[in-house]
């Protein structure tokens, strides 16, 4: 029914006679069958190219273990940083994930770490305090290009920002500053869609980022550069941002772990574009990592002591007391039908839980059918922006210029060329003018969200975990998302509901593409997810090297 959504209110569709609904559902499925078939044919004309295999075993050491080895002088920081610089140089021609480089400064910082380690006595108090005060001493990491840090000014794929002179970098991300204070070393920033406004990681400044498991396919967005680089062993961990799935979609497509925190639980200062006011109720800025042990390790450092205490992050979780629930098919009317791969991912976890006598309960919520409009109504109710601020971002504050999204899209399609990405322009135009909700519709869907939120709060409480698909499919071919632009509803519904989520990789399917799931907890129960994610990694193996 995706074709009708711009023209007919979703609620009205489900008040039609059943025979009409069935026919519309048939057309809906037929549309996606045709889209999938066309892109499968296009894919077949392009040879699959694998990224180079890992040759340096240093790239396989988890961050917490690497930090220990540096402290114990088993490896040097320079060796580790150099290994990641070389790996990025080796794989970036394939995946194009790196935006802005910090290699020279990173290698200099690593040398300083090694010089310190040469002179500090193992019997000194300074050495004893290293693990506590500098838990990331000498360990490299990466940063999404939209996340502010002292080393870089965010470009975020906006041509005007690359050309502009009036760019100032204020209020850096607090979590990144804590990583640096803990001894971490920034290697680079990673690519995003233009202004983070698409689930296809492409822009006119840095180009398109490719999936490390199949470069013909998308990484997802908007933290696609982070997903690709971490998934290809070009980085151990990094920070992304998420307002509708921008951490979890790339994490799922690229086979890594991605964490979306409970809204307001962790500071989101230091992002471009800014998401202020009530939008912090749906926005997250948090870590992504190859290994779940690292995800918890670096998340703990990323947070302030106050934030850790608020979330009871260090409190032990008793797995035996946890209750489990699952949804293997949301039945969203706006998205592609869920694939067998993604259903199977949920079912394998359910089977595993059955085997250990946890017996998860299958849930169904009628409100979920309206997932996209629930998310959109939530965004509209939390935001008063009408496109003016987007225009200012796209022009780098030049009030004499105005970006016409439809005109820029036409320039693309007619071969005239544009400074703006086609998918981003179409997404912005569609969001602003086509998928419009009037005040009455906003109220209806926001009220629906509140009711659904109350139901889930009651079910999940402080001991429940919900297992759901990460996406309706594994990583799709490039550009397919233009024709299935609302598939992010699988993730955005949990932004609207304000629940913490971790995306967890399970295994590679028959095409050697990652299959992942989302695990969801009650508000402020983030610590439960890290416990279950660890169990999932132990059972299914977690990240797999692309091959």
Topology:
Layout: H1 10-13, H2 18-44, H3 63-71, H4 77-95, E1 98-101, H5 103-119, H6 125-133, E2 140-144, H7 159-163, H8 174-181, E3 185-190, E4 202-203, E5 207-208, H9 224-231, E6 237-242, H10 248-254, E7 257-260, E8 284-289, H11 292-302, H12 305-310, E9 323-326, H13 340-355, E10 361-362, H14 371-382, H15 388-394, H16 405-413, H17 422-434, H18 439-460, E11 464-469, H19 489-497, E12 501-508, E13 514-521, H20 526-540
Parallel strand pairs: 2-3, 2-6, 9-10, 9-11
Antiparallel strand pairs: 1-3, 4-5, 6-8, 7-8, 7-12, 11-13, 12-13
In short:
The protein is α/β, with parallel strands linked by helices. The chain is built from 20 helices and 13 strands.
Structure report:
By secondary structure, this protein is α/β, with parallel strands linked by helices. The chain has 2 domains: 1-45; 58-379 and 440-540, Amidase signature (AS) enzymes (Alpha-Beta Complex). It has 20 helices and 13 strands. Strand 12 (501-508) and strand 13 (514-521) form a beta hairpin. Helix 11 (292-302) packs antiparallel against helix 20. This is Amidase domain-containing protein. The chain crosses the membrane at residues 20-45. It comes from Parastrongyloides trichosuri (Possum-specific nematode worm). Belongs to the amidase family.
